[in-house]
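step 3/5: co-fold with shikimate-3-phosphate
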Amino acid sequence: MNLENPDRTIVLIGLMGVGKSTIGRRLALRLGLGFVDADEEIERAAGRTVSEIFESFGEAAFRDGERKVIARLIEGPAQVIATGGGAFIDAETRRLILERSISIWLDADIDVLVERTARRDTRPLLKSGDPRSILVRLWQERSPQYAKADLHIKSSDGPHEQVVDQIVKALQ
Ligand code: S3P
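step 4/5: write tokens
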């Protein structure tokens, strides 16, 4: 990709807690692109938080909204989009992302994901049991799909800026 003049949308995918939003914001700044967080867009469109959507309407309804919001975002000008961890698991959303963007799977050690997701109580999927076991199971179930992304970036527990460096290098 021409990093002086990036003309393709970049979509960050990967499990909860991997840093998609924070890294996405920094990557967008670095590339001179806009940034959007798909979960925030869903919340704005629904006038409810992700947890409230799960509670009131269920996961399937959330995935419908997520699919529509990501389809709209991906039609727009080139930008960096951080998606929720399950977005890429939906076949239609995945097809759109693969067709219309450069997709990047952000991946990290399970300990990092456990520690980061424990900081905020906003993830309905982690409330039904032990968060570590749920994250391990989701990693096992989802990684074959995540592996279809254009790039796979393994972040250490190092500073986010280092991960941004890794991504920029991989995009060159
Ligand atoms: C989900 C991840 C969340 C959010 C929702 C479902 C998932 O986003 O979309 O709670 O299925 O992994 P983050 O990955 O930003 O936490």
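step 5/5: annotate
The first strand starts at residue 9 and ends at 13.
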